[in-house]
# Entry
Amino acid sequence: MNWIVIAAALSGALAVGAGAFGAHGASGAAAEWLKTGAQYQLLHVVAALAVLRLEAKGPAILFLSGGMIFAGTLYLMALGLPRWLGAITPIGGALLIAGWLWLAWLATRRA
# Structure
């Protein structure tokens, strides 16, 4: 699980950097994409670390990978890469939802 904590820490650092760039160095749609990506990514870093304490490794991995795909595509578009990357963003969102559903399922099994 140590690699998950390392990935979460790096993901958190990226989210803070992207959010700061969105707030101070970007404008228009790029700023909004950076802010949105940072919010989702950082929230799911915290969720991943929290569920690791519950020994729910699967949901933690989905939170981190989904957050990176969701936020990463927004970051790339904000940096000027093609807007078709926005078609990939919902894959990250689906992974985030799957993580929450998996966590709910685990909770019912442990109840």
Observations:
- The longest helix spans residues 28-53.
